[in-house]
């Protein structure tokens, strides 16, 4: 059962001997997540697109947590070849924790290296492929977990079965919401497929946390006014990245977490200590989840059996 409203990083259990992979760990929520896992003794791979920023994050983290065992791994979720290369090059026979954290938000229309709409491709398809490619190592670890980071803004839009990648009329916030609904549908279907396994698939969201994610879209288009407005809103209304990472850390480490759970801030999905979070009803639709899984496997070429191996 969840502890009271004061759950924090001090409640994270010891993680010595565990291997964790955190995507998008060079800044924001991902960095805080990686730092706190390392502080508790986990060996953490910071899986980042930019080598310069990733290696700088490793240096910064070791400075903050001197005994930390952390390393950089290059991973571009917008390029399936990079996802495969990362998985193949990971020098560990088992992975105890995969945190699918990286993402983009409300960016201008664009496509990934493989031709997918950027938000759907990076936020969902890249993580779908990464999870599948790392699954044998996750199944090899006792009581491993897969935590996928969604958003409270998933409630703005359901996946369009006929156009999951928003190839029709593109609306940046709708596309973002669809990608975050896809994160939850993926967790739902993965949970169904993992029945009988000790491997948990769960999800989390940060509420409204101040990171560089909000301003990235306006910055990419040179919309200085919108960028400035996002920065001011972060200062006025958002909680810190440290607070925003708590639901992810809870989902990743707390005892008693149930398969398929979704955690977020306790106060109106906005801020506060981790708690079970409301989710839109379409994110627990069995047929939609299975259809998205089939489409994702076809698009990525990664189709994986998530059943526990015979022991």
Automatic annotation (TrEMBL):
This protein's record includes keyword Oxidoreductase: yes
InterPro entries: NAD(P)-bd_dom_sf, SDR_fam
Domain of life per record: Bacteria
Keyword Lipid metabolism set for record: no
Pfam families noted in UniProt: adh_short
Keywords tagged on the record: Oxidoreductase
Gene3D superfamilies noted in UniProt: NAD(P)-binding Rossmann-like Domain
Homology family: Belongs to the short-chain dehydrogenases/reductases (SDR) family.
NCBIfam families in UniProt: PRK06197.1 (NF004846)
PANTHER family the record matches: PHOSPHATIDYLINOSITOL-GLYCAN BIOSYNTHESIS CLASS F PROTEIN, PHOSPHATIDYLINOSITOL-GLYCAN BIOSYNTHESIS CLASS F PROTEIN-RELATED
Protein name: Oxidoreductase
Source organism (scientific name): Streptomyces rameus
């Amino acid at each position: 059962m969840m502890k009271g409203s004061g759950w924090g990083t001090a409640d994270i259990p010891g993680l010595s001997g565990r291997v964790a992979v955190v995507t998008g760990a060079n800044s924001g929520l991902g960095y805080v997540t990686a730092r706190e896992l390392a502080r508790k003794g986990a060996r953490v791979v910071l899986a980042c697109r930019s080598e310069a920023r990733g290696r700088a994050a490793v240096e910064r983290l070791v400075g903050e947590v001197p005994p930390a065992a952390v390393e950089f791994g290059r991973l571009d979720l917008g390029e399936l070849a990079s996802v495969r290369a990362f998985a193949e090059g990971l020098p560990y026979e088992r992975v105890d924790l995969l945190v699918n954290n990286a993402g983009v938000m409300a960016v201008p229309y664009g496509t990934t290296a493989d031709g997918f709409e950027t938000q759907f491709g990076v936020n969902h398809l890249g993580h779908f492929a990464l999870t599948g490619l790392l699954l044998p190592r996750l199944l090899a670890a006792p009581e491993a977990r897969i935590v996928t980071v969604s958003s409270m803004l998933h409630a703005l839009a359901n996946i369009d079965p006929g156009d999951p990648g928003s190839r029709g009329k593109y609306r940046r916030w709708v596309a973002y919401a669809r990608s975050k609904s896809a994160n939850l549908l993926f967790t739902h279907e993965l949970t169904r497929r993992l029945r009988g396994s000790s491997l948990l698939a769960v999800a989390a969201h940060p509420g409204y946390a101040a990171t560089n994610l909000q301003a990235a879209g306006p910055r990419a288009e040179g919309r200085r006014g919108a960028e400035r407005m996002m920065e001011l809103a972060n200062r006025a209304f958002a909680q810190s990245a440290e607070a925003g990472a708590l639901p992810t850390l809870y989902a990743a480490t707390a005892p008693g977490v149930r398969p398929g759970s979704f955690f977020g801030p306790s106060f109106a999905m906005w801020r506060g200590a981790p708690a079970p979070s409301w989710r839109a009803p379409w994110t627990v639709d069995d047929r939609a989840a299975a259809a998205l899984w089939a489409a994702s496997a076809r698009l990525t070429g990664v189709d994986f059996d998530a059943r526990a191996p015979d022991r």
